[in-house]
Amino acid sequence: MSGSTNTFFAAMNSTAHAMGDLTATNTSTAGAVLPGASIGYAVAVAVAQDTNPGTLHTSATTDGLVSGGYITSSHSGHLSVDFPYGQTPVSVDVSVTAMSTHGGSDFLSDYSLSGLTGPSVHGLF
Known about the structure:
Oligomer: single chain
């Protein structure tokens, strides 16, 4: 395959900040690079509960980068819910990003037809 690339890259990041009397944050990222594809996933969640109105704050962000293919997809979602009333106001922030890319690679290009039966491809044939 002329002009193909064998380099695929996936990098994801997520951050979550919560300020209040009771807080919880959680972040997670994952990435996978496969022959001819790369995939990334990031999620961040921030929750805060406060007995003193005025100091409540949450923030959750995710971002990512994938490269190497010619078909790239990206999906991001952000949800923020605030309950500012009552004795214990609550704020929740959730951010999710998923990205992938594939195509443009010939991952068997380094093997000749006779080399495909060798042990280097770990029993594909």
